[in-house]
């Protein structure tokens, strides 16, 4: 993995008062505290997911969590053109109740609330024997064979446009009959004979009956 690339993380402060004060510092508002102390220090022991967040005289616990989905970040200078800056897959949760799980329970938007449980951690209630039978049937189909109790049906369709101009795919009910090999051979022989008769010179029939012999 390249080490010269920037890694983007989200900082989510769950205490609204602390979040507003930190936001005022970042926006350089007049009422923001001057030269505040902002520090995020990760614990040396463990897997590097536990940390301590310090903001002036406020010390809060923090932890690094994996987001349910990857989030793209963009920036703009004219509110028209968007430039992608990176992908975000982790968030630093500051304050609040810290869980032992390494996965974040919620995403970033209201529809992604409790997404880890509702969408991604579901275990399908499917019988293992049923899954094994489906796998065996798929292998048979891939080999060109029909599973037990089934058959392959070849359905030919054509796109038909009706009088109202609406088109739809319809099965082809009538197919042109193909000539048998014997009929095709006889047809070619008859055609060749007709061609020979047409190209052969006709014999002289003699003088016409209307011409008197001298």
UniProtKB/TrEMBL annotation:
Its main location: nucleus. Residues 5-150 form the TAFII55 protein conserved region domain. InterPro entries: TAF7, TAFII55_prot_cons_reg. This is TAFII55 protein conserved region domain-containing protein. One of its GO terms (biological process) is RNA polymerase II preinitiation complex assembly. Belongs to the TAF7 family. It comes from Coccomyxa viridis. It holds the Pfam family TAFII55_N. One of its GO terms (cellular component) is transcription factor TFIID complex. SMART domains: TAFII55_N. It is found in: Nucleus. Keywords: Nucleus, Transcription, Transcription regulation. Residues 164-214 are annotated as: Disordered. One of its GO terms (molecular function) is RNA polymerase II general transcription initiation factor activity.
